Automatic annotation (TrEMBL):
Protein name as it appears in the record: non-specific serine/threonine protein kinase
Transmembrane segments: 239-264, 909-933, 1106-1124
Location(s) in or outside the cell: Membrane
Annotated source species: Striga asiatica
Gene3D superfamilies: Gnk2 domain, C-X8-C-X2-C motif (3.30.430.20), Phosphorylase Kinase, domain 1 (3.30.200.20), Transferase(Phosphotransferase) domain 1 (1.10.510.10)
One Gene Ontology cellular component annotation held by this UniProt entry: membrane
Keywords of this entry: ATP-binding, Glycoprotein, Kinase, Membrane, Nucleotide-binding, Phosphoprotein, Receptor, Repeat, Serine/threonine-protein kinase, Signal, Transferase, Transmembrane, Transmembrane helix
EC numbers: 2.7.11.1
């Protein structure tokens, strides 16, 4: 008797899915086209005429070798014009994937032109080109390691990594230069270290061994990172702690189950998920920031289209009214928040971390409902792009908008703790409040990075026409990209025109080009908005101001990024505080605006998809570049986190803490359902490739223009399977068109495009050509051909097999007629299948496709002509009509890729069966998920609580007590306005400063919350940063960043910038009331940070002042203390002394200020320029301390005066200049100050110079 095993739902589901999966074809391995490193040489080519054909010939020579052996070398040309090339795929890549990897690498190297050398390391292959023989080189100055950013601690992992690297490194030299190794990690189940080592075949065994030995040192330097690559001149070495091999479908199933367990146990991914939630909770530090989904749904009338305000980079914005009557703007993201969590967190984190009067204000968000929502302040006048074209904005208002936008960008670039680049500055992203003040909005594309980095490399994002050329070409992002966009915005504001195509032409000169030409000819006045000139034609000052703005715009849009001014310089230039140099030419000054549109008119371009992105068509002209996002783990078809295929719209489901059973099940099911079975065929067979007959007039610009055109089209192809572009001006312009046939998926479309793109460069130096592949069409000319549908080159290409009999002919005619008649009314695409009577299992398959640039009438005419051509191929079993505006093919073989919406009855049956199997599996998964959700109910509830007590802002009292050694006096850093400050070290090693208030939090709650609220609501590089607080213990504690250098000695400008921000650039005007040397702290780079906001007060900017109790010390006094090295209090020898103000004032009048300057400064800085700068600071200080408040300059004026951008008037006398400083000493540590009765009858006991009457 056989005892039946009790199988749970997990194994049963596995058994149910396994047969279905095994019946599918083997999953295709990954060509691993992820770019690891792409570098160009620095030496320009001497003979550019010979360079291009030599390079193309070398690549073509290598291409033929790659298809056979996965490796190739070539040398074409002679002498210094010779082009030497090498390409090699890594040993585990199939020839099919090798060809795809090579095609991807081949599109990169031409970008080095006119440099004559470069190298590309992809994760699947390597390519190099030079003008000298380098084949035997194995080491060079460019050798480096690229390390991952995820770490695994513990000696077991390190030892396993070293062992695996040594195994592969020692085996490869004797194994044709290739080896791989796998070593398990002791003590960690199902985790191994995988290594791939590969030497180029041109170096010998000895050189290979030396190269890999050197590479071993490089890659082991990456430990404890879980991934590292050594990129050597002669070899490649990679280490990773994930599955590495190319495997069959059965192996994928087993591997999927193990990876499911691994994902569940993987602490790194768990930390990332918690980190994302943590970032979100950070913005919900106050319960009012967290909105219920139902509340926002009601507020917007269930997202009623009538309440739609517009669309931003990632979603639609609706007007809403909260129950308390507040008007809000609700941004509804295009994607579910689980699926687009990275972008959602990016926008929330960036906006919640900045605060400025010219930035739109985030009121809160909702992430607990079915979709992610952001809540902003409502701005009634919407965006700038509408009024800019009309008469509503006069010049005064427009100039205020310009200045406000510039101030907002200055804050983002220079005055936050990290540098923030918006990446999408344009008129539609500048909102206007009720007073028509500018507010920068839509931070969905924004990126932040540390101030010590020169740039960040990122996938391209922005709006075409506003994007800096260096960023568009290389993806290197700096603040100068925003400066360029701002320059374009200036032109639009002044001219009233938008920087896109005109109404009467599909392609027009860009606004930048037009302005440059007029500027060169001194005709800028002709471009000024007539609506502005009607009222200001005779106002010479306003006209000059407009021309100045145009001049600044040209400086902002210069081609060379380093020549563009910073935004702070731009601001000075706009207000006429900085001289304007002559601008150099902008990019593409002779070219047409490059505009890319899909069928719905949406402009498309790339965006970062490092966290996995699917396809999105962005509104208006926002762009989105969906790379085929997956983390590259050798030959495994999906990442350990998620797989997102651009041809599908997927919802990512965030699961609770599940055990290995359901995770493995979900993983296996994901492999099957997401892969969609075997991948469709990209049909890269070349049908026809021909070049034009006209040689390019200027071959120097032909190559970069062609490269730019292909890059632009590539961005569109990835999202819409179609693209057009124009770069340059005739006769050197390049007009390009690419279209994939309608049954090709986006993935296969890109592969088809990559292959076609390698063919057209062979036409050089001819500037035209066309490529017909079986999956796509590509054409390039030096004129606009987009409307053409017929031409002398139209022809038929017939097969060489025949099918006799009238039934086949008749079936072919019927199928062709059916497809040709359907396509024009179906977006230019149709297909048909007609069975052949009397012949079992034989049908005729037809596909008809018109290019999207021809209209329906032209499409019908084109296909009518094509049908006549293709039917001329009968009785051949296959025929293709290759027309100027369309493509038509018939065959007795089913060459069509499956389209679920239009499947045959057989396809429908398969779909039904698959749906049933999938539904059964989903039910089993749902049962498992339900059980585990129930078991983890308590944990889920805790995770969903989004209050201050759950967030990173809340510290336990006991944690801070331990961190400071129970407030050990040895850790005391000093005393602030309300308490003593101690140094502390948190359990994670972070150093902090803990402020222990003098009063119990219940006794001084108002002051405690005042400091918390003010410091938490502002962000600036020159303000100390609040990390959190503790209000649940026996006393109130504030936690700040630790600034190791304690107090100020010589840093004036940073302090002034911080005060400008507080006074003028926050939504509430904030008065610090206690600016003095001990409240200016210095970080590790000696940058000043204003601290101690216990006395600060805030008020609305429409009030001239507020009445409050007397407190404070002054910036003017601080300047004098810094310059003289003296403190403004009693001397050590006398209880009564002249104040520092009085002493400086007297010496200023007697021209004896130099006597007061700190001798330590004068010893080091005896040159005349430094001395003049110090005297200027003294002069500014006296202006700050004039007795009449209205005569004192604002802090923004003070800042200009300090940097020499503002003239210094003569100061009037300061207060008490003839009096002895009133200082009454009660003891050495305390003083009392008599106060007017109107402020209270009591007196205040104060430490040092702080005073606070109660």
């Amino acid at each position: 008797m056989i005892k039946k095993a009790c199988l749970g739902p997990g194994p049963l589901a596995l058994i149910a899915i396994l047969p279905v999966f095994l019946l599918t074809n083997r999953i295709r391995a990954d060509p691993r086209t992820q770019t690891v490193l792409f570098t160009c040489g620095t030496q320009p080519e001497d003979n550019r005429t010979a360079f291009v054909p030599n390079f193309v010939a070398a690549m073509e020579n290598i291409s033929s070798q790659i298809r056979v052996s996965g490796f190739g070398t070539a040398s074409v040309g002679s002498g210094p014009n010779t082009n030497y090339g090498l390409a090699q795929c890594y040993g585990d890549l199939s020839l099919v994937d090798c060809v795809l990897c090579y095609a991807a690498a081949r599109t990169l190297l031409p970008q080095c032109y006119p440099g004559n050398g470069g190298r590309v390391y992809l994760d699947g292959c390597y390519m190099r080109s030079e003008n000298y023989t380098f084949f035997e080189e194995w080491a060079g100055p460019g050798d480096r390691a690229v390390c991952g950013n995820v770490t695994r601690m513990g000696p077991g992992f390190r030892d396993s990594a070293r062992q695996a690297v040594e195994q592969a490194g020692s085996a490869a030299p004797g194994n044709n230069g290739f080896a791989r190794a796998r070593v398990g990690v002791p003590g960690v189940r199902n985790v191994s270290v995988y290594v791939l080592a590969n030497c180029w075949r041109t170096i010998g065994e000895r050189a290979c061994r030396a190269c890999l030995a050197n590479a071993t040192e490089l890659v082991l330097g990456c430990l404890p990172s879980t991934e590292g690559r050594a990129l050597k001149t002669g070899c490649f070495l990679r280490i990773i702690a994930i599955v590495v091999a190319s495997v069959s479908a059965v192996a994928v199933l087993i591997t999927g189950a193990y990876i499911g367990v691994y994902i569940w146990k993987n602490k790194v991914i768990e930390k990332k998920r918690k980190g994302d939630a943590h970032k979100l909770v950070k913005t919900l530090h106050d319960s009012s920031l967290n909105f219920k989904y139902s509340t926002l749904e009601k507020a917007t009338g269930s997202f009623d289209p009538a309440n739609k305000l517009g669309q931003g980079g990632f979603g639609t914005v609706y007007k809403g009214v909260l129950p308390d009557g507040r008007e809000i703007a609700v941004k509804r993201l295009f994607f579910n928040n689980r699926h687009r969590a990275a972008d959602f967190y990016n926008e929330v984190n960036i906006i919640s971390s900045v605060e400025h009067k010219n930035l739109v204000r985030l009121l809160g968000c909702s992430c607990s409902g079915p979709e992610s929502l952001l809540v902003y302040e409502f701005l009634p006048n919407q965006s700038l792009d509408h009024p800019i074209k009309g008469k509503t904005l006069n010049w005064e208002k427009r100039f205020e908008i310009i200045i406000g936008t510039a101030e907002g960008l200055v804050y983002l670039h220079e005055n936050t703790n990290v540098r923030i680049i918006h990446r999408d500055i344009k008129a539609s992203n500048i909102l206007l409040d009720s007073r028509l003040r500018a507010k920068i909005a839509d931070f969905g594309l924004a990126r932040s990075f540390q101030g010590d980095k020169s740039h960040i490399s990122t996938a391209i994002a922005g709006t075409l026409g506003y994007m800096a050329p260096e960023y568009l070409a290389h993806g290197q992002l700096t603040e100068k990209a925003d400066v360029y966009s701002f320059g374009v915005l200036l032109f639009e504001i002044v001219t009233g025109r938008m920087n896109n195509r005109s109404k009467n032409s599909e392609y027009s000169d860009s606004l930048i080009s037009i302005v440059w030409i007029h500027f060169q000819e001194n005709l800028v006045e002709k471009l000024l908005d007539p609506n502005l000139m009607q009222h200001n034609y005779n106002n010479i000052n306003i006209k000059r101001e407009m021309l100045r703005v145009v001049h600044v715009g040209l400086l902002c849009t210069q081609e060379i990024p380093s020549l563009r001014p910073s935004m702070s310089k731009v601001l000075l230039m706009l207000v006429d505080k900085e001289e304007l140099p002559a601008p150099t030419n902008p990019p593409f000054m002779d070219e047409k605006t490059m505009e890319l549109n899909d069928s719905s008119g949406n402009t498309l371009l790339p965006i970062d998809c490092s966290n996995g992105d699917s396809v999105a068509n962005m509104s208006h002209s926002s762009i989105y570049y969906p790379r085929f996002c997956r983390k590259e783990y050798f030959h495994f078809p999906f990442s350990s986190e998620e797989t997102i295929f651009p041809s599908r719209k997927l919802k990512m489901i965030k699961t609770p803490n599940l055990g290995p059973g359901p995770i493995a099940l979900i993983t296996i099911l994901s492999v099957f359902l997401l892969s969609g079975g075997p991948r469709a065929d990209p049909r890269t067979n070349t049908v026809l490739f021909e070049c034009g007959s006209q040689v390019a007039a200027n071959t120097t610009v032909l190559v970069p223009n062609f490269g730019a055109t292909m890059e632009i089209i590539a961005a569109q192809i990835r999202t819409s399977a179609f693209g057009t572009a124009i770069v340059g001006s005739r006769p050197n312009s390049i007009h390009g068109l690419v279209q994939c046939y309608g049954d090709l998926s986006l993935v296969d479309c890109v592969l088809c495009f990559i292959v076609a793109r390698t063919l057209l460069p062979k036409c050089y130096p001819v500037n035209g050509g066309r490529v017909y592949l079986d999956g796509c069409f590509m054409r390039s000319e030096n004129y606009t051909f987009f409307d053409e549908w017929a031409g002398p080159g139209d022809r038929a290409v017939c097969g060489n097999l025949t099918q006799l009999g009238p039934s086949f002919r008749e079936s072919a005619r019927r199928a062709v007629v059916r497809a040709v008649s359907s396509a024009p009314g179906n977006n230019g695409f149709a297909r048909a299948r007609v069975g052949v009577p009397g012949i079992r299992n034989v049908s005729v398959y037809v596909m008809a496709n018109c290019w999207r640039t021809v209209g329906e009438r032209a499409c019908r005419a084109c296909l009518g002509k094509a049908s006549g051509l293709v039917l001329g191929c009968l009785p051949s079993t296959e025929g293709r009509a290759l027309n100027t505006g369309c493509f038509l093919r018939y065959s007795d073989m089913d060459f069509l890729n499956p389209m679920p919406a239009r499947g045959s009855s057989k396809g429908r049956i398969i779909a039904i069966v698959m749906a049933c199997v999938g539904a059964a599996a989903v039910l089993l998964i749902a049962a498992y998920v339900g059980i585990y959700i129930r078991r983890n109910k308590v944990i889920e509830k805790k995770r969903k609580v989004k209050t201050l007590h759950d967030s990173s802002l809340n510290f336990k009292y006991s944690t801070l007590e331990r961190a400071t050694g129970s407030f050990d006096p040895a850790n005391k850093l000093g005393q602030g306005g309300f308490g003593t400050v101690y140094k502390g070290i948190l359990p994670d090693g972070r150093e902090i400063a803990v402020k222990r208030l003098f009063f119990n939090n219940k006794h001084r709650a108002a002051d405690f919350y005042n400091e918390v609220n003010i410091v938490n609501s502002i962000q600036h590089k020159n303000l100390v940063r609040l990390l959190g607080c503790s209000c649940s213990g026996p006393e109130s504690l504030l936690v700040y960043e630790l600034l190791p250098n304690e107090s100020l000695d010589r840093f004036i400008l940073g302090t002034a910038e911080g005060l400008v921000y507080l006074h003028e650039n926050t939504k509430m005007r904030i008065i610090h009331r206690d600016i003095k040397a001990s409240n200016i702290l210095l970080d590790s780079k000696f940058r000043p940070k204003i601290a101690d906001f216990g006395l600060a007060r805030s008020f609305q900017d429409d009030k001239s002042h507020i009445s409050t109790v007397i407190v404070g010390t002054f910036f003017g006094i601080l300047l004098l203390e810094i310059v003289t090295g003296r403190m403004n209090n009693q001397s050590e020898t006398s209880d009564y002394s002249d104040s520092l103000i009085s002493i400086v004032w007297r010496n200023f009048h007697e021209k004896g200020v130099e006597k007061l300057l700190d001798p330590n400064l004068m010893q080091q800085n005896c040159n005349i320029n430094t001395k003049n700068e110090i005297l200027r600071v003294v002069h500014v200080a006296l202006l700050c301390m004039q007795e009449i408040p209205s005569l004192r300059p604002s802090m923004s004026k003070v800042l200009l005066m300090l940097v020499g951008k503002e003239d210094l008037p003569n100061p009037t006398n300061p207060p008490f200049m003839n009096e002895v400083t009133m200082e009454l000493t009660e003891s050495r540590a305390k003083m009392v100050f008599p106060l007017e009765h109107s402020y209270g009858d009591s007196i205040a006991n104060l430490s040092h110079s702080n005073f606070y009457p109660r």
